[in-house]
């Protein structure tokens, strides 16, 4: 089993990721605070076309003030709005761990103080129910998100305690957990069901890792065990509420949507709401790791296999439909109506990393990397104040603007969303990117280098420096110091590179890959390890079962999936046809001035000319088209949608 | 201006269409009666995935009994359920015109008697409002369908009077119209708005044609003029109802959905609900024809152009989205999420034929033919008791079953639908197919032969016999007798035929096409005109603006669009790739035993082998696939979905 390094032990030297980490600190975090405090004059957009969705303001902090009795007013926004604040605090925590900042810490302290004031004496905390429906606490778990919010609170509390040593937020969180433990469990009289939206499971297991207290792991185990045990649990709650005169409705509860149709350990497929599914899987893996629950781990493996071999976009986006923000069937990966919520790709990263810690195979890191560099990074604008909820793989504004089935697809990132789960999730995830660079074993004798990022890792008894200009250059040097101890350095050799050559102190070393890593075991005295490789422009072919991608290729170079935007080309991107053979001659061109520095690709394409005969008709018999050679310019997918509304396509036509 | 022949003057000799006309009489009409009388033990399906839609029974006749006071009970079904009965009566009328049937006529008389009993003294008739909301009559026009139902009643009444000479139904209809005229109009105190669902406009204009009474045309003109004149009309009705305590809700009225955002004469685009749009356009054209309203006709032409050059599927299906059963934007023609309601293609036929009567150009008949042989004919099963609402161009059941965005797509025709507009619409339209074969001018000196169908036309002073085994054979003989009068025979030369040769009494005649027709003017003494041609297997290319059809071809032969079903091939139809060049060598094979006799096509395809490497992954770099040559079998699109659930594709991959 592997473990993470504390993020303040991993120092980024890399320009690519450093930009994001600093930008999150300098721009995203202050911006998000102001939005949550209703202090920004911005246009908040609905996450999908549904006028009943709240989108006038965030109100997240105001809700706490109202719950604390400091202000009068009504709760506004989603019932889970509190979690925005918690995720923001978690992002702040990582930022403070990386670079202390007194002013920011004071701001966070004030928020924590407010949260403490809002908490009830018995520990209960969720402003929506406190303000609006105090008699419904823990009684509408199919939608309430109470334990979901508690989970995010725990994650924030752990982060903040690590960052500052201050325990106020942790006390609040532990009080919430105590309250939950008092109400939930297999003991008679307690609630024997789980939150409709998973999150507390992974958070409780994290709390166990942080505190070492087994009671938290036990509670996590309970929530994973009780889920789906009685599939009628939620209906019974509803019935009881109606009986008690608390409510008067019979909502239809979709057990697949919330993965409660059977116990998680018996689940083998990724179904329903994608974020719930993958938060649950993350929790399952984390619990299985500590409880040695083989059945639970096997369920994780089956779910993992189902996602990555049947239900994942090339960008590591997941969730093929807006209806329930959900997984659909096998190989159903439409490029224009999909959902691919930023949070879902984030959840996939969490799941992948937990799986990797149990089973150190590169296949997990490959998916994690795919999500980090593509489906997650696309979730925010380059300048850090605009966010996607939905990350499409293809956008033709002239079409999707008039098609309600694509009403959830936006072409530019809004400043904020009515359901603002993604923006702070982006901040906390990319804001702690360091945790994914290296992993080590329990004994501290093996270090895994997962990603190519210029950085320095400090660990007890040594350090590891990774020197590289990747992705601009294909040369990575490692400088490992362990005071002469035996230690193993494992370097992941990604599938997207070609002709890797490994040198130790300039002497070529044979590369035997084990589970996708090359292994160097020796007494280290500061030897230089050097890896040199090529990053060809790759044609990606999708599984022939994926109907949406037939006769098409995607282009990848290094970890980056590429896309074409019409701003760099002509409109009607569908009229460009790329022969995979032409990729060998693609021009690779680093552009420091575009989109904060990207590597563009220029590929020769057959460009179909739309002649005048087509103005009159939709269909022609035995038509022979005219083709001209034209260069197609491609940019990394994550950077799309930053230069005004235009067409964008990942899967190019052959 | 052209006019139709009475359908009992056109005698079908053709096996293809005769089968349908007889089947509608012998099977469809009796079956539909029993369904409407709740006397069939069938599974009625919802037209789309929405559990609030009524689907337990039809109840259409029972609703009349309840309204008539003959039975106790509640109205059940859609508020426009009455129109099912009217459309059925219209289908019966045409059947009786073609072949009298005492028993059927008695059944129809009994239904007419019932309708008469349900009608109120003042003429008002719509069972939903009579039974459920008598105080809301004509007060909720945005959804009420009261004038829509009246329109269908008029059409049935005209048909039944023509068929039987009996005037009872006509009296009922005229009484309804009188009631409407009393309540609607520009005079003070009258309602100055139109029904949310168009239909009365085209029906009133037809009533004018039938009765010669200008007041009906004037009322039609009023409804086309008043629509959209005050875009707030419907909201004002709602407001007034709320004020008067009749209702207490504020529905959001989408004026584009019901084409009331501006006056029809100012409309230039096909927007909103497709059936409403095209019923309105049909009414506009019919009114413009009689009122010589140039502006209205120009609007029709613009709408027509918008539909056929930007918004129509190759099957003549229209309505690209389930959301509002509506048109979307230009060139947005997805093959798997579309709607393509049978009624919408029927409406397109009506519109096309009205336009042709004003402007006798083959382009209108081409679209009409495309709809008849494809998008409309697919609306019913071969045996005539199962009906599609939605006519997709591509179905992969394994995908669409799990994708809620395709929840409205069915793979087999249900017996009936909760909203049963399509089944009787199919019966009345295909059951009077004769009306489309020939058209003549006002003076009775020009006869247009629009379609190749073995048939005999009687007209005052002569007859025209068309002898052909088309579509089985490509040879058509015309035998025109006019007692030696000058007369012009115009024969449409479709775009899908090749190398046509025309002979009069065996002597070749040069063919000069005028507006798509070849013209033969002479004193006819029974000369034989013969047309011989080829019907090559055609590769159809879609306009490059249609993203959904890039790198794909459709196949057409004669008027039939073809499709592949996996029952004739292997599953995963997306793995078949067809080079258009191979179509020259396609095998054309008439199969009398399959699907009531169809012409199959066999085309050589490159069949991609899905190797084992794909079990593990979704994406591969620089993948080289393996191809085998394989024959792909195609069937006419209209006949798909008759042999059990399987995949179906119209647009094949190149």
* Largest interface by Cβ-Cβ < 8 Å: A-B, 66 and 66 residues
Q: Which topology of the largest domain in chain A does CATH recognise?
A: Glycosyltransferase
Give the oligomeric state of the chains in this entry, treating copies of one chain as homo and distinct chains as hetero.
Answer: homodimer
Mean residue pLDDT of chain A: 96
> What is the annotated CATH architecture of the largest domain in chain A?
Alpha/alpha barrel
Domain Non-reducing end beta-L-arabinofuranosidase-like GH127 C-terminal (chains A, B): 539-652
Protein name (chains A, B): Glycoside hydrolase family 127 protein
Pfam family, one (chains A, B): Beta-AFase-like_GH127_cat
Domain Non-reducing end beta-L-arabinofuranosidase-like GH127 catalytic (chains A, B): 9-434
Give me a quick take on this structure.
Two copies of one chain form a homodimer. The first copy, chain A, is α+β, with helices and mostly antiparallel strands.
